[in-house]
Amino acid sequence: ACVLKSPLAGLDDDALYALAADRTGSLRAALAASEDPQAKAAARRLAEWRARADSLGPYAFYARLIGEDGGRKALVARLGDDARDPIDEFLALALAHEQGEAPSLTRFLAEVETDEAEIKRDLEAESDGVRVLTVHASKGLEAPIVILPDTAVAPGGKHDPKLMPLAPLEAGAPPLFAWARKKDEDCAAVAAARAAERAAEEGEHRRLLYVAMTRAAERLVVAGYETQKGRPDGCWYDLIADGLKAASIEAPAFWSAGEAVLRYGEGLTADGEAGGDVPSPPAALPRWLFERAAPEGTPVRLRPSDATVSAGAERRAEGVLAHALLQLLPGVEADRRREAARSHVRAHGAALPEAACAALVDQVLAVIAAPGLAPLFGPASRGEVPFAGALRRPNRADLPFAGRLDRLAVTEKAVRIVDFKLGRAPARPSPAHVVQLALYRAALRPLYPSRPIVAALVYLDGPEIRPLSEEELDAALDVS
Global pTM? Predict the structure, then answer.
């Protein structure tokens, strides 16, 4: 039933209920006897998988299921891009199992059920979803809008440790602990230890508040749920409200004119500099605030990596790995890059042959070390930079577009952009690749009007650099 409801088979609740509710035998027998086209397709798949399980090892079995049978595509379509990392980690576990001992599908599944491995996700990666994080997990990250939904809580001693570390009796003495029961039963030494634990907890409470508030790049929303007991002393809500009270204004809440919110911030003058006085809130909210905005044109999505893919899933996997390595390795010390590249490939390249992974690592390291590409990997450069723009077209609507720059380097003399491509350089670059870089340049021009923008294609096999002239880029936009 779990497999039938999963993306691998795709039956919904109604289809599974019709199949299983009134059956007299097993679910497998009911599936085999069903005349429903979707159920028959699922039965054929299950029969094929059962046959494979008799002869294939864990990695070969799941690699075919995920790749050839479309399992990865189905899982990502339902669960989103966040499913990719667990899928890759699962295949890596299957491969490690086969390399370490005689392959056994039954034993591998038993290991997976008892394994408690954690997958560390790249939280700095761009996504279109809302991320729900603990404050600890958000350290080092930033987002345009951050919401603190539960700030009306504070440490109150409910989680005092039962084993209290006591002050040493003399210098160099071994640590001494006491089992603490109720606070009223504390002796002087245990009471001092309890007070020290609570002081440390309150300090951590305030340090985490600093972390939480500084994650927001543009707007911070502070909210809280207040019980009948009211807000406890020292809760984040009160700390924030008291600290910003003198510079905050009260404004009507957008959900109810009878309620209010506190807003902190200065008004902006016409030239973008902070003004002196905070503007007064409007007496009534304007009608347009509650009207649906007019739809904008859907931007054209540029996917540079997709243009590299011409030989199926394996080629696409190579492209994804190459772009990830070119983004991550420049920030690693030179003598540790090869080790870091191999580690990344082992974790994310399970679907590729070992020889292809080794060759890819060599190619990427050669690109980063190439003298002609040194400015692209210096301190003034960034990899995988998202951008958006609009192409002005005479007598036609503007064409919005969005994409991701493989590499961007900004210096006082010029702005350099490149697009990385797998394989050897062709005699003439693909027109689609030239159009991509022409659009990249168009998006950057308003940001750097006084600096030339130098564009090039970099083919990993070599590596070979193919600069593009302004005439080529202008012509590409005229044709497109």
Answer: 0.39
